[in-house]
Amino acid sequence: xxxxxxxxxxxxxxxxxxxxxxxxxxxxxxxxxxxxxxxxxxxxxxxxxxxxxxxxxxxxxxxxxxxxxxxxxxxxxxxxxxxxxxxxxxxxxxxxxxxxxxxxxxxxxxxxxxxxxxxxxxxxxxxxxxxxxxxxxxxxxxxxxxxxxxxxxxxxxxxxxxxxxxxxxxxxxxxxxxxxxxxxxxxxxxxxxxxxxxxxxxxxxxxxxx
Length: 210
Hints:
This protein is an alpha+beta fold. Helices cover 35% and strands 16% of the residues. The chain has one domain (22-206).
């Protein structure tokens, strides 16, 4: 049996690879990656006994490894509300009764990229005509920068789920009385839309995960 390379060895190999990769091809490869589906399902199995609501959000963010330079990891999470939008994040709506994902809510690309061929949030927002494969991602990017992200997501998917800040505002007193011991997710700072600009994007590595 061939010995598998360590993550560190693969990181060195990637660092020495000067090949340019098309962002769309990478996106298709990730969609076909069964580990994403498996990660989402494992997250559902973990949170079904925790959340008492029928619908909740399940997703993942792509974040850099804190110890190995050049290595990116997927961090899966589940939340009882629409989570704060962040670059390199994908979110789905799961229905417990149907036991399936009912909506693909959004997928935001990287905030920026050193690869000039990569379509990023800024480029999608600023470019008038984009390839048809990116039209939906362009709409999400516009909603993000135009400060109407959650209303857009609710309208587009015909749902009424609260956003993170709205949910915490409604349930904050209940959490406080309970000492936040029964809070369904880790403490998180509500996303401040006033901070959004082309030059200021919240770092994906700050996202809390379930």
